[in-house]
Amino acid sequence: MDLGKLGTAVSDWKNAVDKLKTAAENARKGMQAKSDKARWAGVNATVTRGFVSSTTKEIADLHTEANSIYQVLDDAHTELAALQKQIRTADAEVRKWGISVQDYGDGTVHCVYPHIRGDTDARTKEENEARDDLEGRINRILSHASEIDASVSRALRKSHGGDAHNAGHSAYESLDDAQVERAAELAKRGTKMTDKQLTELNSLLKWNAKDSDFSTGFYQSLGGPEKTLEFYGRMSLDGTEGDDKERLALTRQLQRNMGTALASATDPDNRSHLPASWGTEFRKLGTRQMELYPGGPNSYYGYQVLGGLLRYGNYDSRFINPIAEHVVQLHHKEPDFFMRNKPNTGGADLDWGFNPSGKAGAGYDPLTSVLEGLGHSPDAAKKFFSDDMTPTVYNEDGTVKKGATLDYTYYDELTNKDFKWAPDSLVHPGSDDVAHAWDGGPDALGHALEAATLGYAYDDPTPTPSRDATSAAIMEKVVQTYGDPDNVKDPMADSLGRMGAGYIDDLNWGLNDSRTDSIFAPKDLDGHAQFGSPNTIKFLSSIGQHPDAYSEISIAQQIYGTSGLEAQVDGGRINEPHAQEIVRTGAEVQGILDQSRADQVHAEGVAKDAAYNKSLQEKTEWIKFGAGVGVAAGAAFLPPVAAVGVAGTLIPVFMDAGQGALTQQIGAVIGDSAETGEMDSSSTIQEQRSVIYGAGHSAAASPMEEFMAKHRIRHDGDFGQDLEGALESGYAKGTNGENQRGVLPKA
Question: I need a labelling partner for 737 at 20 to 30 A (CA). Which of 148, 199, 215, 552 fits?
Fold first, then answer.
């Protein structure tokens, strides 16, 4: 598309605006002023004065209309040009892969590899992933462009008004104004919105939610905090009731989009934002029951409705933390406070409620919701769990309780193994799923701790290393707390695994007792945790009893060990003592995990081993990304795999390791260990344990084997034998149950 023509139109309309502004001023200061001063009388005088006034107004209206058109077109040109730049980047990748982009004719495209005569059309996983990624990216850009096009067309029609003899109708200072107006029109229809209208509202929200001018204007148009909760509450209940899958999908989008927009609108650092009174009002509404449907059988607490929105968006701590504090304090005082009005659906409509996403609870427990919100708000999560946090005590109605103090910290309260989580589920009390009714809370807590310790949202698809002194201090507490296996709830084990993977460098350092003379000691302590050897061993042993955590740490260790070995090569010379220590420590980490896994399987049997193998299979799906695994800025990012529900993981690597070669080597290392990691469980406990140790030993050896092959180090040479000796001693130390006494499960 030639956007130059649109740019020319913008320039032309700017000239028209300037000239009409001058004309309007001349009319006002000239003929209107003279008409007002003239001493006319009679019928002609009345007609003439009216004509002069209407002409002056029409010229002013023409200026208003022209300015509205100019502002809308100017914004559209800026946004479309940015999208076109993204399309051109995608086009370069399309050409690189030899992909054909086919137009479906409905605003979407399909990416395919053209058939070449004589070709089998077989494609590698990497090629297929590249194709799917490009198709999704291009369609998202086109969808955004279509939304801009529709908004501009609508705004131009309203600015013109359809009357060639009467200027000055809807006036906009920006494209945002026009989009807010349309979103407000749709929202006023509430549950009467058709699926097509709700799709349009979602499109407006999706592409503008992070634009604070739009998000602030949209929430103001709803009429305030209480009206906001009424709108979302009704839409949520309407969209989750029954078995209308299309409406449910649209309501899930609305939840995500409105949450993201609320985070943008409540951030005081944004140019446009809602007043702080919105947060105060939300707290007051939190424990007040709202009748969403007059005469309905249920009324709901404000926090239950608000919780659905808080689950999405990166919130500023000044908005979300006071709400989180109030909710935790309410739970501490009365754990079942918000469970009193949970509806009884008999297990027939599990989606019904204020969390259409269905993730981590049905949405009636605001504690789970606010923890999910912290899981998407890393800065807020860090402040909430930090020892530097000075709590504000609130009354039940959300007002500040002046002079009051708490006798607990929020971290200690929520991580207490005896903490009473709410059964935020609508499953039937006698069903097989009832055991999982309490899973939402621990799962959300894990997400919040991930954000606090790693510095990015737990499900961020493109995270960057963001550890600092505060996050490292929280991670030290996490390692100490969850070194006790009784504290680890299954739903949060995957989060603990990702946290461990994100601090794999400091866990290796911890096995060296966090000594300053260790090869793993960081040059700068900022963002690094000092766990010490006993806490490190307990933590690895404890979370190693859970398949998801085991596989996260195992693969992270292979990647970290691979980078560590490569960092010991300088100009063809290898620092042999350091290389041996990296192999030894890495093998010890794997050995601790394997000992924990073997004893857990001994305690729980074949089913548990099958769960370990399944998790390893899922994690090694990362292999299919091949060279797509990103290594930059001291970290390797393994992208999420939606097909198997594996979240992305950011893993520290040695800063001195070469990024280009390292990327390729990581794929090879994981691939080497995957084959053994996926072996079937044997029929006897002894055979199972043998398979576990064999697979684990291979995983521990994989970085060393790849390193030796790459640098042509002979197994029968002195250095090769030293490396193998380091491997065996480290693995033997790790699998020595005496090191983990009191941590491993009993058969």
Answer: 552
3-state SS, 103-145, equals ECCCCCEEEECCCCCCCCCCCCHHHHHHHHHHHHHHHHHHHHH
What are the structure tokens assigned to 474, written together? 């929280």
Closest CA to 734 of 553, 486, 477, 608: 553
Helix (H) or strand (E) holding 745: none
List, for residues 469-500, the tens digit of each pLDDT value: 999 999 999 999 999 999 999 999 999 999 99
pLDDT digits (tens, 9 = 90+) for 193-206: 999 999 999 999 99
Whole-angstrom distance, CA of residue 518 vs CA of residue 504 = 15
Quote the crossing angle between the two packed helices 504-511 and 547-566, to the nearest 10°: 80
Backbone angles phi, psi at 210, to 5 degrees: -90, 0
Q: Is the dihedral of CA 536, 541, 542, 544 positive or negative?
A: positive
Q: 300 by DSSP, 3-state: which?
A: strand
> How far, in Å, CA of 514 to CA of 531, rounded?
7
Residue type, 691: V
**CA-to-CA distance for 72 and 10, rounded, in angstroms?**
9
Structure-block tokens of residue 194: 């058709």
**Residue that the structure tokens 């604070």 belong to:** 212
pLDDT at 630: 62
Dihedrals phi, psi of 294, to nearest 5 degrees: -50, 125
Helix extents (H) in 28-114: 33-37, 43-97
As a whole number of angstroms, the distance between CA 691 and CA 41 comes to 109
Joined tokens for residue 97: 């892969």
Burial class from Cβ neighbours inside 10 Å (0-12, 13-18, 19+) for residue 96 reads exposed
Residue 335, classed as helix, strand or coil, is coil
Q: What is the dihedral of CA 513, 518, 522, 528, to 10 degrees?
A: -10
Amino acid occupying residue 1: M
Question: What distance in Å separates the CA atoms of residue 456 and residue 471, rounded to the nearest whole number?
Answer: 11
Q: Which residues contact 648 (CB under 8 A, 6 or more apart)?
A: 459, 460, 461, 463, 637, 638, 639, 640
* Nearest C-alpha neighbor of 742 from the set 552, 604, 537: 537
Q: Say how many C-beta atoms besides its own lie within 10 A of residue 335's C-beta.
A: 15
Residue partners of 432: CB distance under 8 A and separation at least 6: none
In angstroms, how far apart are the furthest CA atoms of the chain? 119
pLDDT of 683 > 70? The answer is: no
Residue 711 is encoded by which pair of tokens?
A: 């640098």
Of 541, 538, 522, 542, which Cα lies nearest the Cα of 530?
A: 522
Q: Enter the DSSP assignment of 166.
A: -
Mutual orientation of helices 718-734 and 685-710 as an angle, nearest 10°?
150
What tokens were used for 519?
Answer: 């090869």
DSSP string for 591-622: HHHHHHHHHHHHHH-HHHHHHHHHHHHHHGGG
Residue-by-residue DSSP string for 472-523? HHHHHHHHHHTTSGGG--GGGHHHHHHHHHHTHHHHHHHHTTT-TTSTT--S
How is residue 682 annotated by DSSP?
P
Question: Beta strand 109-112 with 100-103: parallel, antiparallel or unpaired?
Answer: antiparallel
Can you give the length of the chain in residues?
747
Question: 37-53 b/e with 16+ CB inside 10 Å = b?
Answer: eeeeeeeeeeeeeeebe
The DSSP element (H or E) to which 290 belongs, if any, is strand 289-290
Q: Which of 39-43, 292-296, 587-591 has the highest mean pLDDT?
A: 587-591
CA 403 to chain centroid, in Å, comes to 37
| Amino acid of residue 657 | A
Nearest residue to 591 via CA among 599, 518, 577: 599
Structure tokens belonging to residue 456: 């990015």
Q: What is the distance between the alpha carbons of residues 63 and 67, in angstroms, rounded to a whole number?
A: 6
Asked if the model's pLDDT at residue 501 lies above 50, the reply is yes
Sign of CA dihedral 256, 261, 262, 266: positive
